[in-house]
Amino acid sequence: MFRRSSRAMVCPSCGRLTRTDARSCLVCGRRHPGLWGLAGPLATIARRGNFTNAVTGACIALYLLSLLIDPAGLVRPRGPFDVFSPTPAALWALGATGSIPWQLGSWWTLLTAIYLHGNVLHILFNLLWVRQLGPGVEQLYGAARLVSIFTVSGVAGFVVSNLVGVPFTVGASGSIFGLLGALVAYGHRRGGAFGSLILRQYGPVALILFVFGFFMSGVNNFAHGGGFAGGLVSGLVFSLAERRAETAFDRALAAAQIGLTVLAFGLAVRAALA
Length: 274
Known about the structure:
The chain is mainly α and about 270 residues long. It has two domains: about 1-50, no CATH class; about 50-274, Rhomboid-like (Rhomboid-like fold, Up-down Bundle). Helices cover about 65% and strands about 0% of the residues. It contains twelve helices and two strands, in the order ββαααααααααααα. It has a two-stranded antiparallel ribbon with strand order 1-2. Strand 1 and strand 2 form a beta hairpin. Helix 8 crosses helix 9 (about 175-190) and helix 8 packs across helix 12 (about 250-274). The model is unreliable at about 1-5 (pLDDT under 50).
């Protein structure tokens, strides 16, 4: 259990100093500004953690696990780009999403499918972009807000994809487009020379990648579009790091989403064993 902390903190509402274990802010009256003493431990976890590395490790571990669950994908590639491709059965077992799981009520696949990939090129391409964009979004918004932007974007992309009837889909590309959407939102909100530079750098990238998806088979452009929209909205809602430091609420929201993702994989395993 976390130990209650009595350190000073900045109130998320009024910006004045208060105590992390205070029942209410003495200045504005906000109740439990330090989240019942958990603000300190959550801040420590956020400082020590690295979400980009965590996503990379999780995707690689789950990709290897998907190959081990059903080794048939190693010896029976369906095409030149399908070498070392997990079988559909293995991906279903780990939580692939699509219109069928959606209709069956398997809501957790909206989270689990973000970390699953269909072949070597798929995971390699996605992880290169995650590692390219993740640190930048973290610097501009904050570590905890990066978690929320990445997760919300991935879920939004799969919601759109499932609603239009894509039967089977996996991958972090919706979240990646969400990171691009958040960068575009930052450039718009920041303004000035730096904001314009961010817009000119990442706006065309998002457009080129989206258009490029229409020329490749098997690309889920609905998830890309939904993910970009999710990241754009998240970027417009969350405060910029340079204007407002992350609050205890930002960290608690990120921790809740990580916990929900872990729970989602637990539900996927239970469903596979049922």
